[in-house]
Amino acid sequence: MEQIQVEAETQWIYTFADSSRILTIVISILLIIYGSFRALGLDAAFNLPEDGEAEQPNPSSSPFARLMDGFQTINTAQAVFLPVGASFSLLVMFFFFDTLQFFFALCTAALAMIAFSFVLMPVCQFLTRPCFGSGNQKYYVGFCGRVTPAEAMSLVCSSALVLVWIVTGHWVLMDALAMGLCVSMIAYIRLPSLKVSTLLLIGLLVYDVFWVFFSSYIFKANVMVHVATQQADNPVQIMASKLRMNSVGNISPQISLPGKLVFPSMRDRGRFSMLGLGDIVMPGLLLCFVMRYDNYKKQAAAAADMDQSKITYFHCSLIGYIVGLVTATVASEVYKAAQPALLYLVPFTLLPILVMAYLKGDLRKMWQDPFVAASAKLKFMEV
């Protein structure tokens, strides 16, 4: 009896330490770190004030440049109503996915293409620099307008990746596109204050818990899991059936939309570890906010010739995210059911920041638009 119990405990440890779960945790952490650093780089590249408001793009520039130059700052009203909008979108996908799956696949492919081109941009800039110098010169390319060589290369490579993903439906390509979406959203969507961050994350926590735990009582199915796991007919298959080319359509597999990260288990064939993009992006926006605040404090300390604490808000929140993700993974294994990851991620990331800010005396400043206040103060001092 004791031997059976020991074997069961050992099996549980092996299951938790499976490669798919480890990859999910590691990749999620790396995406948040990389997206946060890209946000700081964009602030410096576009010469942004720390309030996160971007300069207005040139109307004569390319559609790609106008889209990628725009920053979206979430305000209080948007933070409150975003979970409501997300719930509405979830219900639309739950009830009308079969009818609108071609539309969903098309929109997702377009967003993923633009997002992944953003990820590829630094590599393309490096590759085009020997031939085109700094790469700031723009060339006219048909309906795309005027684009730099790096922008053109990133769009071509990203488009090729999307096309291969549509044809093959391979999970590796889907994960690559999902990673691009994560990094782009963390870099381009800004939380202006700790108040907005708290409202947004608490609202999304309630949203996640309701749709995972309680939706089955109303809709006779777990709406969140159903939407996350359903597959769409391949657009190639749909077009082939309309053109009566069934031989082409039959070899095109169904595709899963890149709204999640999936990694297969090395030990249990056919088993995947899955994490929704919202469980990466939403805590990632909070971590990006505190990284920007850490950078602001670092610059202020350097200007005043003061020592900066080695333990930053970003370190604190990143450790909390890791602990929360591990806790969610353990809970899903213990209960053998899907878990609302934000139920664990939000407290473990948000509470340490609130406590640390209170102890350091930064809570009042971080709660009410710290970057706007700092920017205004700096302009007043310059005058």
Automatic annotation (TrEMBL):
Pfam families: Peptidase_A22B (PF04258). It is found in: Endomembrane system. It is a multi-pass membrane protein. It comes from the Eukaryota. The chain crosses the membrane at residues 12-34, 76-97, 103-127, 172-191, 198-219, 272-291, 312-335, 341-359. Keywords: Hydrolase, Membrane, Transmembrane, Transmembrane helix. Belongs to the peptidase A22B family. This is Signal peptide peptidase-like 3.
